[in-house]
Specification:
This protein is of the alpha+beta class. The chain is built from 19 helices and 24 strands. It folds into 2 domains: 237 residues, Glutamine Phosphoribosylpyrophosphate, subunit 1, domain 1, CATH 3.60.20; 185 residues, Rossmann fold (3-Layer(aba) Sandwich). Strands 1-4-3-5-2-11-10-12 form an 8-stranded mixed sheet. Strands 6-7-8-9-13-14 form a 6-stranded antiparallel sheet. Strands 18-21-22-23 form a 4-stranded parallel sheet, with helices on both faces. A hairpin with a 2-residue loop joins strand 16 and strand 17. Helix 6 crosses helix 7. The longest helix is centred in the middle third of the chain and has 16 residues. The chain is globular and about 70 Å long. It binds iron/sulfur cluster.
């Protein structure tokens, strides 16, 4: 089953055709089990400088960031001379066994865990990507999505660039290679100032690590460190601060929007490669993606989600007997809702955490099978009760309907659904894998129509104002909210993706 394939220091872990054949028959994640009616995670990145076992540290960091992508993972290391890179399909713990980690020497590392966005899902596009350019060997790992890819790719190919992948990360490296700037750091700044969209990236050469965020700061990226008395600090960079906890590193600060940070033997230096664009950090990181034990965009996710629940309770409270979260991402908002409303919080739905990757569905057409596999109702909590269900989003509506039916089937007398963000009415172009507008139920139906479709007694969403206040943005100018408003922070959008199901109706 395991067939490992290494190609020198640039290698892949190949889990064999048997593994892929098996996975192609079955859903890959819990979300896809539930009819794909969920927004997928994007990517997670880490970087380590100054640790004798940097590959192991990258492994731990990626382990903590596994929620941001389960399709593939990779680690590149450098020891001042060599730059090694191994990646594979699957979970971090499946790919990086002790044997594999030992093939990654060096005191520096970058790592990546991925859910595919731009570029197909092949191993070829797993990251880090290693490119041998006229500026030397560079490895890059990227979280986000570039929106001016087409123009840049055509321009670079006209200049003689040969692309090894379809990933947008390679565009950045090719721009570095083709830059007329004479130093590497100038070439990186030049490259980053030409791309538009969302990117939090880590890059590594044989002797330095670079970290940068796009000028609008769409995706989070933070710096941590471990102080060693009498020695140089160990420096870490990670998509979310929960990675620092596992690594026993302290949080230092966020990489700022438009900032390029360089980490070397001489310490940390920084430059602002872009200024003047308003911040538009992804508010959906607070709603769903980031872990509640992380601090993103200067605020604890737990605190924001708790406030979402409290605002929701004030805006759309309803007489009820129990508050029940849709696990796991609805839990923190449900706690806030329960405290604010004074109605008891109960775990009335239990999630099976062990379902998904190796599961073989016995019968394709078993009704509601996916949701029943993923969630099970606790009948003694729900029977005879008026239930407020708290969830973080409704995408197509199919999963919500199954959950409402499940709760009612367990004996609930009323089922009221409350959503801890506004209706999702527009797709994302910045690294979140949303369906097109045609498939988003809230883009094409009224709230009352959605309520009827999902068969709830009542349905309410958190207001945009309530969401922004919950996330600490009282001036309404810090976050991207395009999937709730259709107001995109960048000029470029894919027109086909934003057409409603019934244009003109
Ligand atoms: S469109 Fe939505 S998901 Fe995408 S970056 Fe903006 S807030 Fe985040």
């Amino acid at each position: 089953m395991s067939g490992l394939l290494f190609q020198g220091v640039e290698g892949v872990v190949d889990r064999t055709a048997e593994h892929y054949a098996c996975r192609s028959l079955v859903p890959q994640s819990l979300e896809s089990i539930a009819d794909g009616d969920a927004l997928h995670e994007e990517c997670g990145v880490v970087a380590i400088h100054g640790h004798a076992e940097a590959a192991h540290e990258a492994y731990l960091g990626l382990y903590a960031l596994q929620h941001r992508g389960q399709e593939s993972a990779g680690i590149a290391t450098a020891d001042g001379q060599r730059l090694s890179n191994i990646k594979g399909m699957g979970l971090v713990s499946e790919i990086f066994t002790d044997d594999v980690l030992q093939k990654l020497p060096g005191h520096m590392a970058i790592g990546h865990t991925r859910y595919s966005t731009t570029g197909d899902s092949a191993l070829l596009n797993a990251q880090p990507i290693r490119v041998d350019s006229v500026k030397g060997l560079i490895a890059i790992a990227h979280n986000g999505n570039l929106v001016n890819l087409g123009n840049l790719r055509a321009k670079l190919e006209a200049e003689g660039a040969y692309f090894q992948t379809t990933s947008d990360s390679e565009i950045i490296v090719q721009l570095i290679a083709h830059s007329k700037a004479t130093t590497l750091v100038d070439a990186i700044a030049d490259s980053l100032s030409q791309v538009d969209g969302a990117f939090s990236i880590v890059m590594m050469t044989r002797d330095r690590i670079f970290a940068a965020r796009d000028p609008r700061g769409f995706r989070p990226l933070s710096i941590g460190r471990i102080r060693k008395p009498g020695q140089k600090d160990i420096t870490y960079v990670a998509s979310e601060t929960c990675a620092f906890d596992l690594l026993r590193a302290e949080y230092v600060r966020d990489v700022e929007p438009g900032e390029l940070v360089m980490i070397s033997e001489d310490g940390i230096t920084s430059r602002q490669y872009a200024t003047g664009l308003p911040q538009s950090s992804c508010i959906f990181e607070n709603v769903y993606f980031a872990r509640p034990d992380s601090r993103v965009f200067g605020r604890w996710v737990q605190e924001s989600r708790d406030q979402m629940g409290r605002h929701l309770a004030r805006e759309s409270g309803v007489p009820a007997d129990v508050i029940v979260p849709v696990p796991d991402s609805g839990v923190t908002a449900a706690l806030g809702f329960a405290e604010e409303s004074g109605i008891p919080f109960r775990l009335g739905l239990i999630r099976n955490h062990y379902v998904g990757r190796t599961f073989i569905e016995p019968e394709q057409r078993v009704r509601d099978f996916g949701v029943r596999l993923k969630l099970n109702p606790v009948r003694n909590i729900l029977a005879g009760k008026r239930v407020v269900l708290i969830d973080d989003s409704i995408i197509r509506g199919t999963t919500s309907r199954k959950i409402v039916r499940m709760v009612r089937g367990a004996g609930a007398t009323e089922v009221h659904l409350r959503i801890s963000c506004p209706p999702t009415i527009s797709p994302c172009f910045y690294g979140v894998d949303t369906p097109s507008k045609k498939e988003l139920i809230a883009a094409n139906q009224s709230i009352e129509e959605i309520r009827k479709f999902i068969e709830a007694d009542s349905l309410a969403y958190l207001s945009l104002d309530g969401l922004l206040k919950s996330c600490g943005d009282h001036d309404h100018n810090k976050f991207c909210t395009a999937c709730y408003t259709g107001n995109y922070p960048t000029a470029w959008v894919d027109v086909d993706e934003i057409l409603p199901a019934n244009p003109g109706s």
